[in-house]
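Team,

Forwarding the record for the chain on the shared tracking sheet. I've put the sequence and predicted structure together so nobody has to dig through attachments.
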Amino acid sequence: MILKGHPKLIIAGQLAYYDVLTKLPNRALLADRLQQAVARSHRNKTQLAICFLDLDGFKPVNDNFGHEVGDQILIKVAERITQNIREIDTVSRQGGDEFVILLNDIESEEQCAHTLERIHQSLSQPQLIDGVEHLLTASSGVTLYPGDQSEMSSLLRHADEAMYLAKKAGKNNYQFFIVE
């Protein structure tokens, strides 16, 4: 027997776990995916990369061209990130121009770096919206689990702290969180 949900309930369920604009997982679904990824990493003795990505220079786009153009750019950014990760990975929009990427089963820091380089290269390509070319870059911060054995909320905070180091280092780069 196939049970079909009420359309309004299905839409409400989607809204609870997905960003309305980009259709990416939101904070609530990311928390669940992060919990699952940490458990899988622990169980399989593999590494997990938690990456916090923030667009460089996005605010002037909204200020100068309007939120509709900014929204179109965010949709394209979501597509470009998704095209550069694997099916087993997760990208989530945290709000504004902030994204979190979970890279599962990472074999090395170099593999993570290579993925981030592809993502950053893709994001730095011009975006043509309404006949205007927009150039943006991204700054990312990364922490690797189980090297960083913090609680889940701390893992996100550590990736965020590393992202701010990337911004301080001149933007358009990524930095790894150093576990002391």
